[in-house]
Specification:
By secondary structure, this protein is mainly beta. Helix content is about 0%, strand content about 45%. The strands form 8 sheets. It has a 4-stranded antiparallel sheet with strand order 4-31-30-29, with no helix packed on it. Strands 5-6-7-8 form a 4-stranded antiparallel sheet, with no helix packed on it. A hairpin with a 2-residue loop joins strand 18 and strand 19.
Length: about 500
């Protein structure tokens, strides 16, 4: 129900609406429905779902407002194809029909438009919360991780939701210092439980800067309780953050991030394995760890990591080879942490001076191709464009790149990327459209031709809205997570789109 107590209905387009006699269909999408459906009439051919709206994580009605589900409540990912789909005529129950079997050409083989919003909900966890990572459970639920709370004391969290936006469980992550604790990456372990990576900050005594340490844990997928959890860090105060995680076939964990202290961080990557200690307890044993320094003891850090079936490790991030000039950095290691011979490395130097070029995520495709996502500086001392780079199988030479400038001519970035089983590339992030950042999603085919892009999404709070993570499922549907603003608030946000 809306604020006036009027019951709404959720429609197949992926948003919910309310009675409005000014619309031919008799319904209009709500003011808080996601873009581009905000305040638009429901199309007459949009059929209502067979299930009624449920309640979201806060117990409020799923009415299409911020914090409620805007997708169908059935958690199944099976796609129902209308019986007449494919005849080239848009029949009842179809949103389009182009008569072919080509996916992502504007109308998919199941007669749904490419890039159509299927569901959308926000967390309403309270204060300023945002999702930084997303993973799907084996039975199709969504697990997100990120940060929540106010700016002076933010905690990490992991939470599981059904596709109707119902909260199944939530686990807060907090150090002893009132600083930024966070969860930056999620994955599934060999048994289907949730593995989480982030940071915790603990007090280190009077007049001593608090420590930032890696935090890694495995959580029971059914209830969120920790099966095990470890804090990795020792010695003097440090500023170590685990930003990205990948799993080797037998369950070993790769962690990428930054290592070092607050004034001198290195580009870090390590491999860890669960083992029994001498006392019979579990420990996370370091197999190998590498820290790469740009040479001037400043800001170097890794932000993305991926591994292929052979154990080849691809890690991307940033190096500061010259003070005040950040360059993208990508390198490939073998399963033992050794550089390939000859070295496979993209240093990204020789570009614009005083730049802020960063790799924020990497993905490996079915043929061994690598795609990196991040940001690239337009000109000296200017803002950045969203950036994608393609490296052919077995190569670390940049073969193709794509930059996307937002209309606001300010900071834009691709923060996440995935490659599906067909080699198609899906990237998400944000574009600056003037005074704010808007969430954005785009898809390219295996030859790097753009297939479609959604319109930038601006939350009702007219703030900075972002896609921070995405995953492509077996149906090639795209689930994204990030943040969406509403007046005075920022909420962790989840949405799903057709291929």
């Amino acid at each position: 129900m809306n604020a006036d107590g009027v019951a709404g209905q959720c429609f197949s387009i992926g948003a919910c609406g309310y009675p409005d006699t000014a619309c031919d269909s008799g319904h209009r999408y709500s003011a808080e429905a996601p873009q581009p459906w905000t305040n638009r009439c429901v199309l007459p051919e949009d059929p209502a779902p067979t299930t009624s709206p449920g309640t979201n994580a806060s117990g409020e009605s799923d009415d299409g407002s911020s914090g409620s589900s805007t997708g169908e409540s059935d958690a199944s990912t099976t796609v129902s194809i209308p019986s007449e789909c494919g005849n080239g005529v848009e029949d009842d129950g179809e949103l389009c029909d182009d008569g072919n079997e080509i996916e992502a050409d504007g109308c998919n083989p199941d007669c749904r438009p490419s890039g159509t919003l299927l569901l959308s909900f926000t967390s309403l966890l309270g204060g300023r919360d945002q999702a930084e990572a997303v993973v799907l459970t084996e039975d199709g639920d969504v697990v997100i991780g990120g940060v929540l709370g106010e700016s002076d004391n933010r905690d990490g969290f992991v939470a599981r939701y059904g596709l109707d936006g119902m909260l199944a469980w939530q686990l807060p992550i907090s150090g002893t210092a009132e600083r930024l604790d966070a969860v930056w990456a999620l994955g599934l372990g060999p048994s289907g439980n949730v593995r989480a990576l982030g940071q915790v900050i603990d007090e280190a005594g009077a007049k001593v800067t608090p420590r930032e340490d890696y935090w890694v844990a495995e959580l029971d997928v059914e209830n969120g309780s920790p099966n095990w959890a470890f804090v990795l860090g020792e010695g003097p105060p440090a500023a170590e953050r685990g930003y990205a995680m990948a799993h080797l076939p037998k369950g070993d964990i790769l962690i990428a991030g930054r290592v070092g202290d607050h004034s001198n961080s290195d580009f870090g990557i390590g491999r860890y394995s669960l083992a029994s200690s001498g006392k019979g307890d579990l420990e996370l044993a370091e197999i190998w760890a590498e820290a790469f320094d740009g040479g001037i003891e400043l800001r170097d850090f890794a932000r993305g990591v991926a591994v292929d079936a052979t154990g080849r490790v691809v890690v991307g991030g940033t190096m500061e080879y010259v003070e005040g000039d950040l360059d993208r950095h990508l390198r490939v290691l073998d399963p033992g942490g050794n550089p390939f011979n000859p070295p496979c490395e993209d240093r990204g130097t020789g570009q614009i001076p005083e730049a802020d070029d960063r790799i924020l995520a990497v993905a490996i495709g079915p043929a061994g191709e690598v795609v990196a996502a991040g940001q690239a500086t337009r000109a000296t001392n200017e803002a950045t464009d969203a950036w994608l780079g393609y490296y052919a199988p077995g190569s670390c030479s940049l073969e193709w790149e794509h930059t996307e400038p937002g209309p606001g001519h300010d900071t834009d970035a691709f923060t996440t990327v995935a490659i599906d089983g067909e080699g198609n590339i899906v990237a998400g992030g944000f574009l600056n459209t003037g005074n704010t950042e808007d969430a954005w999603l785009v898809k390219f085919d295996a030859s790097r031709e753009q297939l479609w892009a959604i319109d930038p999404i601006d939350g009702t709070g007219n703030g900075n809205d972002r896609i921070q993570a995405l995953v492509v499922d077996e149906n090639r549907e795209i689930t994204v997570a990030g943040r969406m603003t509403r007046p005075g608030e920022e909420d962790a946000w989840v949405a799903r789109y057709t291929p």
